[in-house]
Amino acid sequence: MPLRPNQTFNFIAASLALSLVAEGALLWKLSQSNGSVAPAIIANLAATPAPTSASFFVAPGVAPSSQASDSASHLIPPVFSAPNGKGKKNAAPAGSGQNALAKTYFEAATAALAKKDNRTALENFRRVAQIAPDNLPTRLNLALLYLGANQPAAAIPHLQKAAQLDRKSAAPRFQLAQAYLALKKPALAMAPLEEVVKLAPGERVARALLAQVYLSQKRPRDAYAQWGILAQSQPRDVEAHLQAATLAADELKRPREAEKWLRRAQNATPKDPRAALLLGRLFLGQNQPREAAQTLSLAAKNSPNVFDIYPALANARLAAGDLSGARGALQSALSRVPVAKNDAQKLQVAQIEGGLRLTLGRVWGQSKKPKAAKQEFERAAALLPRDAEPRSLLALAALQSGDKKTARNALQDALSLDPRRAADRLTLAQLFAQNQNWRAADEQYAAYAKLQPHDKLALTQWAQVAAHRNHREQSLQIWSQIAALDPKNPLPLLQSGVILRTLKRPAPALAAFERALQLRPNDASALFEVARLQSTLKKPGAALTWRELIAIQPDYLPAYAALLDASQRSGAEASTRLFLARQLSRGKENPRALSEILRFYQQQNRSAQAKALLADIVQRNPKAKTARAALDSFGASTSGVSTSPRNAPAPGGPTALPSGATKKAPLRLHPEHRLHLESTPQPSN
């Protein structure tokens, strides 16, 4: 878990760049440390007093005036120092006339500043710079005026010249770095900032800004080094310790070093809760929720009125499995939500409180208190009118509370805010289906299928909804999609075959059942459907298919008559009689199956075939008492042979449901969804 969210460079520059007034104060401090003269502070020109004496400008080569105003000198530092006659930067112009002209321009510039006429001041300072190009204070005044006019590009040449003129002063270099940052060129700001921290190593602002620039250039090690220097040199500088800890944990993956910095900050400033907050987050990121909870609990005792502690404490206790403690921390946070003073703050406070109530509702839900969770989610939804999440959670809590109406309304509200919430749409579709609102359920399933086209379970539910609406073509199309997604599953093929048979398309139905049978060769339902359609279409392989069905499920009685009928049409009566003799002579006798066979022969007036079959059975199994009794009494009355006469239907016609067969079941939308074939007499599988 990162200790802090990533900060963009614009935010870094905005948060750390000083105002021009503060910059001027820093420049004054930096220049004093090197014996240099500070430039004028022109950030707020309206508050800058006008120079009252010509002593504020001394032309190169001219000694300063002794009539300077002491009061004015106290209000504003000198903007142009008198040259000492040494060095190129203080060399006088070609003649004394040029000095007088420069002085005139400078006085005009200062007068313009007093009248808040920055444009005139800027023009006159330019003229001074043309006369005395190597004069440092003039360059700095020009740079500050350009910066005050939000023209950092124009200020940069003057700052570069000032840095060349005074190689021991940190002030122009710092200002140059600020100009580069204003142009969003942090890479160019690094070099002048590095020179600043060398010339003035104790300056916190410059070093902190350099650390932020390093971080924006993906140099976290260098940034960490700068914050570490600040933290070591200033033990009570909490911000430096926090920044060093953040970089150690998030960027360098050194949690032990991060913990060291945070504990140093705690020890140096025990009343500052920021270190404890970050330390708690660090422990959570290291999967140490108990340590995080202990740290944050102590911080709450030391600083009970700090709001930010309690949400973090709730997260720590929740991670530690302490649901009761998490609820207490969240309720403490809710009682300390800041009071809004304007509309913008009201929106922020509503978002904060709404997030807390969302978390509290989740905790109530984990505590198996759905009604309490529902109340918190309702409050969160009222506080966050444009957020779909509290409405989705409200629906779940309402379902657990048995309030399906509230759940449907909440889901519809959530989807109106965010139509791409697939889970909410599926839940709403299931609720409509449970309420037998098939049309609404169909619409929701259709929308969900566009979002999640590979969800086989949802497609299965949608197909059944379409069946309830008697939209067989739509249901057939959906089953085809399922079959394409799961080509090794025979169930979609079976369902497609049933629909095609209902639509009186026997050939495509037979093809679907045959593909299902290939995937699951011993499936009794598939065998039955294939055999029946083969018989209907008078396919030559129908008899063989009926034999396979009887072999795996001998108790399915209608299959015997259908087998004999198919064998009679295909001319395979002899092989069928041999198959039946072998089948009925094995193991335990099956008198009901024998009754079905004899009834068929009786209806067809084929007593010779019946007698031959019985003789073959008795020959194969002398202990077959039923077959022997039927054979013995065969000559007297064929009807007396049947031990349990039944009205056997013709193949393909209506039959009684065999043992294990089921009628069409109502739709039950449940994660363990079961498939149901349409009502047909089928063998149990």
TrEMBL record:
Q: What is this protein called?
A: Tfp pilus assembly protein PilF
Name the residue ranges with Polar residues bias: 635-646
* Keywords recorded for this protein, A-Z: TPR repeat
**Cross-referenced PROSITE patterns, in alphabetical order?**
TPR
SUPFAM superfamilies of this UniProt entry? TPR-like (SSF48452)
- Region (Disordered) residue ranges read 635-685
InterPro entries according to UniProt: TPR-like_helical_dom_sf (IPR011990), TPR_rpt (IPR019734)
TPR repeat boundaries on the chain: 102-135, 388-421, 490-523
Identify the domain of life.
Bacteria
Signal peptide bounds? none
What SMART domains does this protein's entry cite? TPR
Instruction: Tell whether RNA-binding is among the UniProt keywords.
Output: no
A Pfam family of this chain = TPR_8
Query: Is Protein biosynthesis among the key words of this record?
Result: no
